[in-house]
Write a structure and sequence with these properties.
By secondary structure, the chain is an alpha/beta fold. The protein has helices at 3-15, 91-97, 138-152, 166-177, 197-211, 226-240, 243-249, 253-270, 273-281, 316-320, 351-360, and strands at 33-43, 49-60, 74-78, 110-114, 160-164, 185-188, 299-304, 327-332. It has an eight-stranded mixed β-sheet, sandwiched between helices. Strand 7 (299-304), helix 10 (316-320) and strand 8 (327-332) form a beta-alpha-beta unit. Residues 1-26 have low confidence and may be disordered.
């Protein structure tokens, strides 16, 4: 493979907002069980209602209950924007964590991988409603996850919630909304404050790039709006890329230009404009900062120093974690082991901190 092809492939895995095709399952693992939970007359914060909201999920293992019927071994893994639960089947995640004797050994834990609202095989605009799909936000997504767990899977307690990127933000909302539901939270690649500054700017550029494309046609397009998806692809490439890794793999003008073209082609083929618009816009009112003191579960909060979306110079993480009763923040220094924002899915870079969390929260 040419350098530019490798760089484009790496960039897709860096962001892992990304494409379900990336979720190449480790050959040593059994296939997860697939299922769907349908929530009837689901009410969104916007006041809209969907007669049937489908939540798709995959699971490994089986639930173990104590004498009172409380599930003791369930682990919920929450994916990033425009991704799916399949991202956690990638070898750099599943191959490090799911095997025998590993931290999330699927013979011990009941591992749950949902596709969240608007993503993957769950209900989303591209199913047919297009831009008439209800507007959803993170609170709606957590509510649907909670209902899926309790009513669909019979899970009344979680040993761990681990979230990456958007899932990282979801973990903060979970800790505040259902403080007694989990034993521990692992938050990877986000900030526990409202999305503003550069983080909001690149998201707004994606949103405006879709809405301002005449071919979007207020969501009623019959073919994907090309310019809209190209703008989105370029922004995701920048946001998900790691400067050190990109410089190594793209050392020339020609390699860089070819990589960008290849990335745009692949990204555009893998996304629907309405689904992407909704997914990016879902973060518009996210802001857990006023209620951080209400989180009672132990929290391990990890960012990497080469993350474009959550740069360390902001100092936000170090400040806000002080308000979490049992919180710890770790900043992973830039190295050959980090991959920008997508470090969240390269478990070798942070598994030692997951180990510490699991040990410290063990009952």
């Amino acid at each position: 493979m040419h350098d530019y092809g490798r760089a484009a492939k790496l960039a897709l895995s860096f962001i892992l907002f990304a494409v379900t095709a990336l979720g190449q399952q480790s050959s040593q693992l059994p296939a997860p069980k697939q299922g769907d939970y349908v929530a009837h007359n689901f009410h969104f914060k916007s006041g809209e209602t969907l007669p049937e909201l489908r939540m798709h999920y995959a699971t490994f293992g089986s639930p173990v209950r104590d004498a009172s019927g409380r599930v003791m071994n369930a682990v919920l893994l929450l994916h990033g924007t425009s991704g799916t639960g399949e991202q956690f089947l990638a070898p750099q995640f599943a191959g490090v964590l799911f095997g025998p004797g590993q931290l999330l050994d699927i013979t011990r834990y009941y591992v749950i991988l949902p596709d969240n609202i608007g993503h993957g095989k769950s209900s989303k605009p591209s199913d047919g409603m297009r831009a008439r799909f209800p507007q959803y936000d993170y609170d709606d997504m957590i509510s649907a996850q909670h209902e899926m767990l309790e009513k669909g899977l019979g899970v009344n307690h979680l040993r761990l919630i681990l979230g990456t990127s958007m899932g990282c933000m979801h973990s903060w909302v979970w800790g505040e909304t259902y403080p007694d539901f989990m034993d521990a939270l692992m938050a990877l690649a986000c900030q526990p404050v409202q999305i503003a500054g550069r983080n909001r700017l690149w998201r707004k550029m994606v949103i405006d790039g879709i809405r301002d494309d005449p071919e979007w046609k207020n969501g009623d397009y019959t073919t994907q709006p090309r310019a809209a998806l190209e703008v989105a692809a370029d922004m995701f490439y920048i946001a998900g890329g790691a400067p050190l890794q990109l410089q190594k793999t793209l050392p020339t003008r020609e390699a860089t230009d070819a990589s960008e073209a290849d990335f745009v082609k692949r990204f555009s083929a893998a996304h629907d404009a309405n689904d992407l618009l909704y997914a990016v816009n879902a973060s518009w009112d996210y802001d857990p900062s006023p209620r951080l003191e209400s989180i009672t579960a132990p929290v391990m909060f990890v960012n990497s120093a080469d993350d474009f979306i959550n740069p360390p110079e902001l100092g936000i993480a170090e400040l806000e974690i002080k308000r979490v009763k049992k919180g710890r923040f770790v900043l992973i220094p830039i190295s050959d082991q980090t991959h920008g924002h997508g470090t969240h899915t390269w478990a070798a870079a942070w598994q030692q901190y997951l180990k510490e969390l699991m040990e410290s929260s063990q009952h």
